[in-house]
Design brief:
Number of strands: 19
Distance between the termini: 35 Å
Shape: globular
Largest sheet: 6 strands, mixed
Mean pLDDT: 90
């Protein structure tokens, strides 16, 4: 998911830092139990990647999140940013989710709405889940398996209405290529390959084996939605909570306020707590203001993209401030997608010219230096299974090779190229990286002009819309991607498989539809042996680099600052280096 989506993401991961738990305590943080605002100041750098910082079971107060733009959507079935996957679990419970634990331990899947992991049969083509008993919505009505079925149908098959999430279910469910979604289904029966034999059982019948299906149902697309309350694209205005918090108010583009869900029952939910009285999400806040508020202990950065450049310089050069930070990987890659549908990048030689031209050291510097990530040479980051060290377009010290770039341009039948490069207007580091790339490309005869678009509409209206890209001659796209789940498939499928391409909402910004890559991805996800799957993911990575469809820039790292006034802070791998949002509390009443 884009880190997005990332997931959490998208995924997400969205798209995807898992969740805080007061049961995981750092000995260095024991002072926090008394509510001291200084409890996390002695924890040390990277403490939240190893355990809970400022642990507390104190109830009360308000947790405030701030974000520099607007999210794609608060609707759990229509989002693909990782920070929204993370946040949505406060009010939307998927069938499975990630374990409340710090660091790598947070990558472990655990049942959420389901009572236990899925039971596979037919070689991994059929998956059966049983729901926990006693589940209720915020209005006290029971949650049933039919609500989960409906949630999957609306989020995956009504792409003309809800286009922002991944389309895995559409690709893998039997008949998914023909079903038009619940808004057009006059029979009301829904998709036949999702069966609900009783109110607590749901069965997914797939068109081919999917050995990692438990990861797929951990997306918020399986969070239940009552059909009678669904308003399509407007459901976001009145989301019905299945989690520990519910919406008190939603002011589109400005703010959302959540309060405790009185019909949430801890007996049915071993993962969540209800520590804060209120959770406020403020939108369109200036990035520098967010940094100031985070350091003051009055807010948490919702997006999890880390401090800005000026704040970074201040923090890393002050030992006391640095002790309040976490610098972590999260299965993410910063890269530039080369649009294979926009001429002349439909020719592999022109794409290779771009590969050789870029000075990656200048890009890394623009992003904030090594603390923001190591220079990347593969599609898969080192912390994703299937990664193998390689460098298909090696240049001396990673500083680019103008001569080789011009050689490839000549092979492409060009002496120069004019194109545009897209980046998100509310992400200063992304803009700075794009500016560094533009300078590198110019030396090789590739003239690229920067086009900026808001992150909330980046995939729906701009970079993710093939017709828009062609009309605007956008051949290059700045991108950051985090694994939908911690496997090669969870990272690669939505950015490399041809089936991920649609009329809008694309995350395959290279628009690559390579038969060999598609077939290897299908073979991998059907393979039961994990080692064999990982070997195939490495081969897919190599093939993608041979096609020169994207330029790996850095293996993303984030520098997070821990606000002193918030408790139960934990950073985990599942949500791309963010702090977990599920059980955060506050030291202030």
């Amino acid at each position: 998911m884009e880190g997005k989506r990332t997931i959490m993401r998208r995924s997400t991961l969205a798209a995807v830092a898992a969740l805080g738990s007061a049961s995981l305590l750092l000995s260095a943080c024991s002072k926090a139990d008394d509510g001291s605002e200084n409890g996390n100041k002695s924890a040390g750098a990277n403490a939240a990647t190893k355990g809970v910082v400022n642990a507390s079971t104190q109830k009360g107060g308000t947790v405030t999140y701030e974000y520099s733009d607007v999210p794609d959507s608060f609707d759990p079935g229509n989002t693909y940013y990782a920070y929204m996957y993370n946040l949505s679990r406060l009010y939307a419970r998927p069938l499975m989710t990630f374990k409340p634990a710090a660091g790598e331990a947070g990558n472990e899947l655990v049942p959420d709405l389901a009572a236990s992991p899925g039971e596979p049969s037919d070689g991994g083509k059929t998956w059966t889940y049983k729901l926990r008993s006693g589940l209720k919505y915020e209005d006290g009505t029971p949650i049933t398996s039919k609500d989960v079925k409906y949630a999957v149908e609306r989020s995956n098959f009504a792409r003309d209405v809800l286009s922002l999430g991944p389309n895995y279910f559409q690709q893998f469910l039997e008949g998914g290529d023909k079903y038009k979604g619940p808004y057009k289904d006059k029979s009301g029966k829904g998709l036949a390959s999702i069966e609900t034999p009783d109110d607590t059982t749901i069965v997914f019948k797939l068109n081919r084996a999917f050995q990692e299906f438990d990861y797929l149902v951990a997306t918020p697309q399986t969070a239940p939605v009552p059909k009678a309350k669904d308003k399509g694209i407007d459901y976001v205005k009145n989301i019905v909570s299945s989690g520990s918090y519910k919406f008190e108010s939603y002011d589109e583009g400005k703010q959302a306020v959540l309060v405790r869900n009185e019909n949430w029952d801890a007996k049915t939910d071993p993962l969540r707590k209800q520590y804060p009285d209120k959770i406020v999400v403020k939108l369109k806040v200036n990035s520098e203001t967010i940094d100031q508020d985070v350091q003051a202990g009055t807010a948490i950065d919702l997006g999890g993209t880390g401090v800005q450049a000026a704040t970074q310089a201040k923090v890393v050069n002050d030992a006391a401030l640095k002790a309040n930070t976490d610098n972590t990987y999260g299965g993410r890659l910063v890269y530039m997608a080369i649009n294979t549908q926009v001429a002349p990048f439909d020719k592999v030689e022109c794409r290779k010219a771009v590969q050789y031209a870029i000075d990656k050291v200048s890009v890394q510097t623009a992003e904030g230096g090594p603390i923001r990530g190591d220079i990347a040479t593969t599609v898969l980051p080192p912390d994703i299974p299937g990664y193998e060290k390689a460098d298909a377009y090696a240049t001396k010290d990673h500083k680019g090779d103008v001569a080789k770039a011009k050689e490839q341009l000549k092979a492409c039948g060009k002496s120069s190229i004019k194109t545009n490069i897209s980046a998100r207007s509310d992400r200063p580091q992304e803009i700075d990286a794009a500016t560094a790339i533009i300078a590198s490309l110019k030396k090789a005869g590739i003239d690229a002009t920067l086009k900026q678009y808001p992150s909330g509409k980046y995939f729906t209206d701009y970079a993710g819309v093939p017709e828009f890209d062609k009309k605007q001659n956008i051949g290059l796209h700045m991108m950051q991607w985090g694994a939908d789940w911690p496997s090669g498939y969870g990272f690669l499928q939505q950015i490399l498989h041809g089936d991920a391409i649609g009329a809008s909402g694309n995350t395959n910004l290279s628009y690559i539809d390579d038969k060999q890559i598609n077939e290897m991805l299908e073979k991998a996800i059907a393979t039961e042996d994990e080692a064999q799957r990982n070997s195939l993911y490495a081969q897919i990575d190599k093939r993608a680099m041979d096609q020169a469809a994207l330029v790996p820039l850095t293996y993303f790292k984030v520098l997070l600052y821990r606000p002193a006034n918030f408790t139960n802070l934990v950073s985990t791998a599942a949500f791309s280096g963010q702090y977990d949002y599920l059980n955060i509390g506050t030291t202030k009443k």
